[in-house]
Amino acid sequence: MPPNLTGYYRFVSQENMDNYLRALDINVVLRKLVCLLKPDKEIIHTGDHMVIRTITSLRDYVMDFDLGVQFEENLEPVDGRKCQTTVSWEGDQLVCEQLGEKRNRGWRHWLEGDRLHLRMTVEDEVCVQVFQKVK
């Protein structure tokens, strides 16, 4: 049975965010700003329904979805695109596939103890973020 990811997680670290954003065609000024942000995550996981809030001082981003059901994700606030998105479990990892203009786009969340890991991919770039559970 997959883990329940419900909780509030504080930012700990990230690697390769600038190259990840460059692969999304984000301009240099916005890339520099995003690389300075320290986002928190709030996850509400109820059965097959999830809400994932990414919280920053600049703006919040909310994903509200049912597991295994494809939906149109509006990523215009992020990079001006829309994707056909499906989120499902692969073992203990929550896996998101985002089909659209960019190949190999998506992410994975998993827990190691009280740390939430996020591995984001687009094209050939990978960005990894780590968050500490606080409640």
Automatic annotation (TrEMBL):
The organism's place on the tree of life at top rank: Eukaryota
Coiled coil: none
Alphabetized Gene3D superfamilies for the sequence: 2.40.128.20
Molecular functions per Gene Ontology: lipid binding
Oligomeric form and interacting partners: Monomer.
Similarity comment: family membership: Belongs to the calycin superfamily. Fatty-acid binding protein (FABP) family.
Annotated protein name in UniProt: RET5 protein
Taxon lineage: Eukaryota, Metazoa, Chordata, Craniata, Vertebrata
Gene transcribed to yield this protein: Rbp5
